[in-house]
Amino acid sequence: MRRRRLLAAIGTATLGALAGCGYAPAGGEVRRTETLDLGSVDPRSSGTLFAVDYNRVVGVANGRHYVFGEDGPGFVDGADLTVVGRDASSRWGYVHPSDARALALGDGVYLLDEASRVVAVGPTEVDGDDGATETKTTERWRVPVVDPDPPLVAAGATAYVAAADGVAAVRDGGVAWRRSFEAVDTLRTLDGGLLVRTGETLVALDSAGGRRWRRSVDPGATVVVGAGRAVVAGESVVGVGPDGTAEWDLEPGGAIRGLVGTDGRVAVLGSDGTRVVAAADGTELWTGGAAVRPDAVVVGPEALYYVLGRAVGAVDGDGRRWRRGLPDDREGCCPAVGWLDGETVAFLLESGEIVWLQRKTRNRGLL
Q1: Are 64 and 109 found together in one domain?
Q2: Phi and psi dihedrals of 337, rounded to 5?
Q3: I need a surface site. Which of 5, 72, 194, 212 has the fewest CB within 10 A?
Q4: Domain ranges, residue 142
Q5: Residue 365: pLDDT above 50?
Q6: Which residues have C-beta within 8 Å of that of residue 322, sequence separation ≥ 6?
């Protein structure tokens, strides 16, 4: 269904980016803000979902929305999608007539809706009234799944979802395959296939559902993916290669509180501090004494950037690099996801606002 709003009306503000030829922004300085158009309802009261990949930022707001349908304009209850570029340039929007429970990005945008269906939405080329080809946002397909439950993940044209008896792979408007598991605790995509943690077992499947490997893990293990490998944190941190063998092992000095991966780097958040390693071989990139338990983390090559409550900060091997408070008038404080963007780090907040902050202080002598 076509939305009433124009996505080009995304609100924009740039702060201090062009304050003179000799201007040198400081670390943590807000360089730019944008606001996603998340619909005609209050997204914080109706529920929101967010996802980011290499070129898209997607927000979904459940609630009541005003749309232009085939029978004319009117209100529709459901999920309002806003899809923009990572630079917040306008892309497209769509309203699906059912609330969304989960969101994943692949070749299209995939939703798990309240009607227990996996739904694929995206731009599609269609024949216009004048015979010319035009691009419209459409529902590509929807597939019912028995007792599905988040999480929902996607790789390419395939969406994977936990179901009543295990995992279902959905593509091209049908269920491509199912695999039985007693429980599905974690789903991650890996090398075109799938990682499933079920209890104390981690299983890697290929795109056809065949088993690549299987290995035991600690109860409640955390799993992230980087450099084509599974990185598993339990009592220790283990890098698992494509054949399922442990390629490297890291013994932390304290309790592991979290594991976060960004662009082939993995941050081990421990009670004794933060350690960042290369996912490919476990090489230590840097370590710091700051113990961080943030709401959202982005792992950079030289620092870790985080949001904690209404504060955003950076820590590196020497400790705290900078810390800034978000203004009190800023809508929403809780981050959904973050990413690196050149000299800045960006955080998408649950209000739909994107904030870009300077990663490190620029040297005035280089300007």
Answers
A1: yes
A2: -165, 160
A3: 72
A4: 35-216
A5: no
A6: 26, 27, 28, 313, 314
